[in-house]
Here is the input.
Amino acid sequence: MTHSIRAILQALLLTTIAACGANSGARDGPVCTHQCSADSDCLVHGDNVGLTCVDSRCAASAAVTCTDHTKCIALFSGWSTACTADGGQCQANAQVCVLVAGGGRCATPAATGECGHNLLQVFETPSIQGEPVKVCANTLAECGATGQCFARCQADTDCLSAPAPFCNVDTGLCECGQDSDCAHLGRPDRAICNAGVCGCGSDQDCVAGAAGDRCDAGSCACTRDQACSSTAHQFDGGAVRCVGI
Here is the structure.
């Protein structure tokens, strides 16, 4: 897997984790949750996407958690290749080495002043030598309250997913507006738009979507492991069980 694809996949996984945390509501009962026993259970198609097994759950490692927006901008902009001042790691792709979290990462320079064709924006940041350089970046990326990166929306035009076409400018998250938006997912357990989040409307929705056997405040929950036996997950190992959150 190439560095750029790995960075995009990692960003998508971390965004999903952050969004789930932000929209979990007041639920405190058990839900169908992927459980791991080793770091290898957290690989995705054999690729390390920056998650390790912590307390039986795949979680973001220290390398991909955040305390400020800089690391998140790098993550969502695809700046995945590490570089040093004299290493030449960025030259092959005509990139420049910029300073990120005390180290260097290769970024694409905004030589023409235009980055829109890549859905990125012109961003001025220090080079590894400390000189200001203009590069192409996702400037909507930021560090969330949970210490995980996500890309904040500012308008509906930033929300490119059909199930979540509306931007909640207060949270920076893209949301659904009606049940027909959620229909694009094709999942019974996420067919109802509940306060901007696609979820369930009845216990049967969860059963039909193999996401549990109970609908709790618009989100699927479970009463026993058997209810999670068909729940899908994206990881190479581990299993989904009914556990408290």
Notes: The chain is about 15% helix and 30% strand.
